[in-house]
Q: What sequence folds into this?
């Protein structure tokens, strides 16, 4: 039997998916300024400047798009080889790189997003990337930099535990962890934001799959994880920002 609360939730979801929720009173319509495109970073934390496209193009293979799509698959077994900083820079560009600014509070990136709102922040659990200490980082797309959140010597066990024992998540050279700041999308779309946020997550990860084919790496999308544990690992409050998706990456 479906209880009344569950039935009400399903009806709400149905209206949401059909676009029946009224968003005429969103903050954008009320004249509220848009939220920042990039979460502020503590200026005291160490930063690493990422490799520019002119340089990472030397390590990125020229892969036919049809071939990349045909070869794309989830890969859970990785060599112990480290990724280069140039390869990581390319993967970050492919998933959240900024092509150009499109006005105040808006940017066009390498992946589509409803209204160019881009509600995701990219966190990295780095284990084996040349030139980077093992630890947790966040990508700053406006600056083309990584900010080091903290060094972490037990990432393999922490990630594996937070991913319900999926050991390949902890063994990867780097694990992409995408966290959502829902208000970036809600500012324009109100409650309908939650529909397109999930669609945007798919855009991110598909680009990562295809980009991995150009650097001899593999990835596997992961949505099975302990929400509280993963949020705590990144120091997120779980309400205004929370983990939505992760994808370990390693050489294959």
A:
């Amino acid at each position: 039997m479906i209880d009344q609360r569950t039935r009400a939730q399903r009806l709400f979801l149905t209206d949401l998916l059909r676009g029946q929720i009224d968003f005429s009173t969103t903050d954008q319509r009320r004249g509220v300024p848009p939220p920042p495109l990039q979460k502020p970073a503590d200026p005291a934390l160490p930063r690493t400047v990422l490799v520019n496209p002119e340089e990472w193009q030397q390590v990125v293979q020229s892969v036919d798009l049809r071939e990349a799509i045909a070869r794309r698959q989830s890969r859970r077994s990785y060599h112990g080889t480290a990724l280069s900083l140039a390869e990581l820079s390319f993967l970050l560009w492919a998933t959240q790189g900024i092509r150009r600014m499109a006005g105040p509070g808006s940017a066009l990136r390498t992946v589509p997003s409803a209204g160019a709102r881009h509600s995701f922040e990219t966190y990295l659990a780095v284990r084996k990337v040349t030139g980077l200490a093992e630890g947790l980082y966040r990508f700053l797309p406006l600056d083309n930099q990584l900010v080091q959140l903290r060094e972490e010597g037990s990432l393999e066990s922490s990630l594996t535990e937070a991913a319900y024992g999926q050991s390949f998540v902890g063994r990867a050279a780097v694990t992409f962890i995408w966290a959502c700041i829902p208000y970036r999308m809600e500012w324009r779309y109100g409650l309908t934001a939650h529909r397109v946020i999930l669609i945007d997550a798919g855009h991110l990860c598909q680009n990562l799959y295809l980009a991995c084919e150009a650097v001899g790496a593999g990835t596997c999308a992961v949505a099975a994880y302990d929400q509280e544990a993963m949020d705590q690992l990144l120091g997120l409050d779980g309400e205004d920002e929370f983990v939505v998706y992760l994808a370990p990456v390693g050489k294959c």
User: Anything to note?
Assistant: The first strand starts at residue 47 and ends at 49. Residues 180 and 222 are 15 Å apart (CA to CA).
